[in-house]
UniProtKB/TrEMBL annotation:
This is DUF1772 domain-containing protein. It comes from Gracilimonas halophila. The chain crosses the membrane at residues 6-24, 54-75, 81-100, 121-139. It comes from the Bacteria. Keywords: Membrane, Transmembrane, Transmembrane helix.
């Protein structure tokens, strides 16, 4: 696989995930507050099962291609910065999002929802920066 194709897959993944995280951040996670207590556990299960089918393959593609680009271009390159941003996204997911979703599996917890919304800004900002970097590198490649 050529480095150009790897870069394009990486850029597509980053753009897709950035768009998705903004929808999740501004619409989906805040809407958790409006789900009734009685149906919340069922809603949470549906959310996790559905979103995982979309997010996991694209996140795996992004981290794999980010690592490959850093490997090919050096771990002190702009591509490496993209890889480090993606690593921070994965760390944030593991430290904040997964634990909050685990709390919400059993019942609606307003504090966990608030934590989910507030800590998700980390991923939202990091993915936005990652997409900005990818866009910059794409424009540099084209010109």
């Amino acid at each position: 696989m050529s480095s150009e194709l790897i870069f394009l897959l990486n850029t597509f993944a980053s753009f897709f995930l950035t768009g998705l995280i903004w929808v999740v951040q501004l619409v989906h996670y805040p809407a958790f507050h409006h789900v009734s207590d009685g149906t919340f556990a069922q809603f949470q299960k549906h959310h996790v099962n559905s979103i995982d089918k979309i997010v996991i393959p694209v996140m795996v593609t992004e981290i794999t291609t980010s690592f490959a680009l850093a490997w090919f271009n050096g771990f002190f390159s702009l591509d490496a910065i993209g890889f480090y941003l993606v690593l921070m996204i994965w760390i944030s997911t593991g430290l904040f999002s997964v634990p909050a979703h685990s709390i919400l599996e059993d019942h609606k917890d307003r504090n966990a929802i608030n934590r989910l919304v507030s800590t998700n800004w980390i991923r939202t900002i990091l993915w936005t920066i990652k997409s900005g970097l990818s866009f910059y590198l794409l424009m540099k490649m084209i010109v």
